[in-house]
Amino acid sequence: MADPVLTFTERGIYCPAGDFHIDPWRPVDRALITHGHADHARPGHGRYLATEAALPVMRHRLGAIAAEGIRYGDVRRIGGAEVSFHPAGHLPGSAQIRVSVGGVVWVVSGDYKTAQDGFCEAFEPVPCQHFVTECTFGLPVFNWPDQARVAREINGWWAANAAEGRFSLLGAYSLGKAQRVLSLLEPVAPILTHGAVEATNAVLRDQGYVLPQTLRVTPDLDPKAHAGALVLAPPSALGSPWARRFRPSATGFASGWMMLRGIRRRRAMDRGFVLSDHADWTGLHEAIAATGAENIYTTHGYTDIFARHLSEEGYAARVVPTEFGGEEDDSAEDAA
Q1: Is-contact 91 253, C-beta < 8 A?
Q2: 170 has which bridge partners?
Q3: 327 confidence band (pLDDT: 50, 70, 90)
Q4: 36 half-sphere exposure, CB direction, 13 A CA radius
Q5: Which of 216, 226, 294, 295 satisfies CB 3.0 to 4.6 Å to 130 for a cystine?
Q6: pLDDT tens-digit readout, 161-216
Q7: pLDDT at position 262, please?
Q8: How far apart are CA 218 and CA 238, in angstroms?
Q9: Nearest 5°: phi and psi at 27?
Q10: Taking residues 40-69, what's their average pLDDT?
Q11: Which candidate, 10, 90, 150, places its Cα nearest to that of 329?
Q12: Going by DSSP bridges, is the β-strand pair 191-193/230-233 parallel, antiparallel, or unpaired?
């Protein structure tokens, strides 16, 4: 029996034929990275390979790294394996990684969403026999509303707050979600940004991604000069002294977890907007079916429940423990 194309080790997903890891969580010599979020692109690896669009953010976050970029769809021979990167639709530059050895094809999804958002590269299904899929939102309750509707909700909320002289403090993760929110805004007042968000904005603008005008919040910024502004910040900043200078204010949070009322209450937000950069229940099924794969490996999220469901659907499904979990996964314990 031939060795498997990919194995699951204490350092992460490993390809013996190519002697590389995919999104490893322990330092390795050669790492292929699906995208720049901190739980997937970690420091300490000897060599990195990622899409050309993902590398600028990775360098911004990781500093000086030995890294090489690759274009979507280009095939690279590494040892006895052929690899290629394909759009995942999660955030700018995000990729699924296809690995082929001896005609057997595996695809590691990384994080992905199937709905087009008009900002990042759209998800493309990749045919394979083995598919390693995330399932961050792998429960039937998670079915995302239309993005245009969510955009109307956010813009309407902001306009109403501005008309009443309030700031609109909106929590969104600094890489991916914040820029997607920005792409949906119809400005009625200035847009102010936390430093973490604005630093990422600068990296993506330099790559040609189009974003509306924003102003970074600095210690000497006078909130009174920006009445009615929308203030975009990482969720962790909303309850901090940094945010308390913006008064009076209303608070909101853009996340898939806002589908659950219990989490909205615990977050103590005035408004929750259901907007996720991960696939929902329907999207997960669409992606899996489009691959044609019979062997499915569920990684982070509702792995046990989702794998059991897939098994009942006729797939050969198993759970693969990982150490992924960051950015939008930070409410998973509350959800459980």
Answers
A1: no
A2: 232, 252
A3: low
A4: 26
A5: 295
A6: 999 999 999 999 999 999 999 999 999 999 999 999 999 999 999 999 999 999 99
A7: 76
A8: 16
A9: -60, 135
A10: 97
A11: 90
A12: parallel
Rounded to whole angstroms, the Cα distance separating 185 from 191 reads: 9
Token pair belonging to 54 = 């993902």
Tokens for 276, please give them: 């996720």
Burial environment of residue 149 by CB neighbours within 10 A (0 to 12, 13 to 18, 19 or more): exposed
Q: Give me 324's structure tokens.
A: 């992924």
Q: Which amino acid is at 218?
A: T
Under a CB-based contact definition with an 8 Å cutoff, are residues 297 and 320 in contact? Answer: yes
Q: In what order do the strands lie in the sheet with 30-32?
A: 7-9, 12-15, 20-22, 30-32, 47-51, 67-70
Angle at 186 between CA 236 and CA 275, to 5 degrees: 45
Q: Are residues 39 and 323 in contact, defined by beta-carbon separation less than 8 angstroms?
A: yes
pLDDT at 333 over 90: no
Residue 199 near residue 135, CB atoms below 8 Å: no
Span 64-79, pLDDT tens digits = 999 999 999 999 999 9
In whole angstroms, what is the distance from residue 42 CA to residue 310 CA? 30
Please give the Cα distance from 37 to 60 (Å, whole number).
Answer: 11
- Find the farthest-apart pair of alpha carbons in the chain and give their distance in angstroms, rounded: 70
Closest CA to 91 of 219, 178, 217: 178
Find the helix packing angle between 55-62 and 195-206, rounded to 10°: 140
DSSP string, 148-196: HHHHHHHHHHHHHHHHTT-EEEEE--TTTHHHHHHHH---SS-EEE-HH
CA 128 to chain centre: 23
- The percent helix, strand, coil of the chain (3-state, each to 5) is 30, 25, 45
Which neighbouring-strand residues pair with 7?
A: 14
Q: Which two tokens stand for residue 14?
A: 């490993």
**Averaged confidence pLDDT in the chain:** 94
